Amino acid sequence: MPIIAPSLLASNFLRLEDECKMLNESDADWFHLDVMDGRFVPNISFGLPVIEQIRKTTKKFCDVHLMIEEPERYAEAFKKAGADQLTVHIEACRHLHRNVHQIKSLGMKAGVALNPHTPVEFLSDTLQDIDTVLIMSVDPGFGGQEFIPHTTQKIRNLRRMIHDRGLDVLIEVDGGVTEENATAIIHSGADVLVAGSFIFHSKDPKATISKLKNLD
């Protein structure tokens, strides 16, 4: 079964406590929290104060995805806010090895995200230090985009790299995930499915989460 990580970026922020309660009662495994700074991506989302409040509502794994420049400046603050995993973008890190080890030294899982144009081979020298690789299947910054078909080949390439080295690294996929393409994504080698609009804009979000969770 895949790990399901609903993205709260697509939730109703006027009803955020209710949305968190719904996720707690659902088959969701993780809370996926997207942080955008308006510099690395052309959008601004939420930050530390909101994550602190979300953390109070749940015991589930909080997966914080930093779409920001200079993520090393804020790693300790996000740990204090309640992040269980902190994911940084390879494109935003001038010293990725240092960034990854900073995150792990703070007691969090370390994730590295790749934009659609970035080959998985760029992780060749750091893959053994990473807990989760987040493959972006849309251009980061906005929800509701369509899945980029070539992503499934990237997933297969990364799965082969992980297998050949005997590593224990999760593959997370974020962007345009729906019930129609989720099975192909899983079969390509993904472990974690991030979905935002598809879940929160559905008529019955809990049922939608269950459908994704029970795909094989």
Automatic annotation (TrEMBL):
One matching Pfam family: Ribul_P_3_epim
Residues the record marks as active site: 34 (proton acceptor), 174 (proton donor)
A GO term, aspect molecular function: metal ion binding
Required co-factors: Zn(2+); a divalent metal cation; Co(2+); Fe(2+)
InterPro entries for the chain: Aldolase_TIM, Ribul_P_3_epim, Ribul_P_3_epim-like, RibuloseP-bd_barrel
Residues reported to bind a divalent metal cation: 32, 34, 65, 174
Binding site for substrate: 7, 65, 141-144, 174-176, 196-197
Functional pathway: Carbohydrate degradation
Enzyme class at the top of the EC tree: isomerase
E.C. code: 5.1.3.1
Cited function: Catalyzes the reversible epimerization of D-ribulose 5-phosphate to D-xylulose 5-phosphate.
Protein name: Ribulose-phosphate 3-epimerase
Organism the protein comes from: Puia dinghuensis
